[in-house]
Amino acid sequence: GHKIKMTGRQRWTPTPVQLQILERIFDQGIGTPSKQKIKDVTEELVQHGQIAEHNVYNWFQNRRARSKKKQHVGVGSSNNNNGEPEVETETETLNEKRKRPESLLVLPDGNNNNDIGTTTTTTSPRPEDLCFQSPEMSSDLHLLGVLSNLRDEHLVGEMGLSESYNLYDHVEDYGM
Amino acid sequence: GHKIKMTGRQRWTPTPVQLQILERIFDQGIGTPSKQKIKDVTEELVQHGQIAEHNVYNWFQNRRARSKKKQHVGVGSSNNNNGEPEVETETETLNEKRKRPESLLVLPDGNNNNDIGTTTTTTSPRPEDLCFQSPEMSSDLHLLGVLSNLRDEHLVGEMGLSESYNLYDHVEDYGM
DNA sequence: GAAATATGAATGAACG
DNA sequence: CGTTCATTCATATTTC
């Protein structure tokens, strides 16, 4: 086999135009677009590329969630001098910050081997059978597990996170 | 909206076995299990991993709510007659689709594995605004993709469109 | 080519 | 119960 692994095409990627429109709408202050709005937006966006309503929905959801999280920075944090890089999802404080210069730079020479996209299947070592997973744990595992084949088979019911569970003060007494 | 953040800890993740059981029960036609049922189910599920009654409850609720608005993926609005001959042959390649590898327990069955599948979508990859890009594709196609010189963000010019979201449970069902 | 990051998608939990 | 939020996961993309 060679590059016949084109099973891809799973994740939708907004086109620049679509992104512009989406951002514009999002910027208008509407946090939670209604179904009708979604439809409307989708209708317009579909003219600029393939897209579905759920894509729009997801986009707004993600956008909103992300905007919320990226707020608190390292303020007043006395600790954290040089402990761990804390590989979280917070990279920058600004919103817009992406670029893709290489992909566009095509050499006129014609000898540009842009042969990336090989079968790079970085298997994510996600704990399969564990029940309660800690966020930081999975994050680290992501990176560590790539190289090593550490397939820690977490035994079911062997995790030590069975205790931290009575914190939810919501305990909805599911009726009936 | 003011969600309480229960010390942001772990989110319960059903083990394959638990999932199986849950699905089986759900499939039996009981839409809204009574408290007793929940208890019973929990009793059984807890033997296969950490779980609580509210987890079961939530699961059923989500499942039910999800099953309702699931079925239609509003895509394919763009008429595509031709453009790119979608050359793909995922037949001889190892589909490294480890979406949810849950093969480690004494799971006698394993039907809860969802994978992409058929992609019978012959969408027209317009070089102007493409949406779904294939992971394995980055060569001369880049030249074709006109790629607008907008600013940042992805100016992708790949191709490959489809709607291969046909898992067992998809559809976001954005309401409101 | 692998690591790191960005971000779309899946799902459990919560609100009204 | 329907809808929305929050967190995680998967994958595309970018960087080293």
TrEMBL record, chains A, B:
The keyword DNA-binding applies. The chain holds residues 87 to 262 of 264 of the full protein. The lineage of its organism: Eukaryota, Viridiplantae, Streptophyta, Embryophyta, Tracheophyta. The keyword Cytoplasm does not apply. Residues 5-70 form the Homeobox domain. Residues 73-84 have a biased composition (Low complexity). Residues 7-71 bind DNA. Residues 68-127 are annotated as: Disordered. This is Homeobox domain-containing protein. GO terms for cellular component: nucleus.
